[in-house]
């Protein structure tokens, strides 16, 4: 058994960890204590003599040494900021995030001899670091527990109940969950959750989503990183029902696809700045009963086009995928024009980001260094392409966000015209890598994602 406690200083990781270890009759490992033993000096002296970078290197060695350890592991407050640490801590372990309000944390750690990390006043530093680490904390955790109003013993009791499989779901909610799983055709998921209460669930929410490669990718990645997770499909006509089912399951994350990327936002507790600006969410992280929305589509567009920074770009389409594309291209200082069959939709999208707009018939290949196709045209079984080879210039980079089939009609046309082509699988690879990090806290190289999809 491997139980990991993460969270900010003052949230009770050491005191709760010692109680847990005693009750479970397993060793307690403290990463800060391991660092001090390796360095032969207290942590304040490590910072004073060698700086934070040296401390983080020692911390990384300490965490790596515990990858296959049995017992309870208490960690330093910043340990999960390094995704490599998260991968080691998560390896066949269960991770609990201990949290508390900023003012209470400041009160608990007042008088500590630990050096500050920001140069800010102590109370402000707590708030700043909590905000900076929030994404990493939520991603790295399997469960979140507020320690603000609980004693260490009560926190340990709550963790033990979860380890023992006590979900706390009421009989009424259980009946509703089972009924919805039956309607979704997910009886297998019900059986898995009932048989293995420690299992966490993730899935893709869409209608349709049977074509998605996400279940294949995620389940392979879960096995690769030793995560006790299962990824499935939530295909249903409305987002509200999917979100309701998600709240009744031990769910950690959702990938959101068409047609729910905009609609799902109203069902979430928090949405990050990127998703709010784009107006669409494709990633939901759940922890502590709250749902957090993100958008990684724009990063999936941005990463393959970094080499065309400052170019003239045309986005074909005006929906959610197009919004993510425009957001990405603007971040690369591109001169963007939005073209759509519905010029009024193109106008609304373009005006949000200060771009030009027009109808699809206004496309001129000579005016574009980059073309991003962000409509469903060409997705299997559709065999159409909005552009023909004669519409394109050799100097143009054509990026088709459709990834089924891997070679779309547009990609074939662009290759025939001699253009640089970027298939939609590249967007999928880069957005999925970022999505996996948000949901699990583990950084996945794009090359590994491609390998898992092969």
From TrEMBL:
GO biological process: amino acid biosynthetic process; aromatic amino acid family biosynthetic process; chorismate biosynthetic process
Pathway where this protein functions: Metabolic intermediate biosynthesis; chorismate biosynthesis; chorismate from D-erythrose 4-phosphate and phosphoenolpyruvate: step 4/7
Chain sites annotated for binding NADP(+): 273, 317-321, 401, 424
Entries under SUPFAM superfamilies matching the protein: Aminoacid dehydrogenase-like, N-terminal domain, NAD(P)-binding Rossmann-fold domains, P-loop containing nucleoside triphosphate hydrolases
Quaternary structure, from the entry: Homodimer.
Keyword flag Oxidoreductase: yes
Top-level division of the source organism's lineage: Archaea
Chain sites annotated for binding shikimate: 212-214, 257, 282, 297, 403, 431
Ligase as UniProt keyword: no
Stretches assigned to the Shikimate dehydrogenase substrate binding N-terminal domain: 204-284
Boundaries of every SDH C-terminal domain copy: 424-451
Enzyme Commission code(s) on record: 1.1.1.25
HAMAP family the record matches: Shikimate_DH_AroE, Shikimate_kinase
Enzyme class name: oxidoreductase
Organism lineage string: Archaea, Methanobacteriati, Methanobacteriota, Stenosarchaea group, Methanomicrobia
Protein name: Shikimate dehydrogenase (NADP(+))
Family membership noted in the UniProt record: Belongs to the shikimate dehydrogenase family.
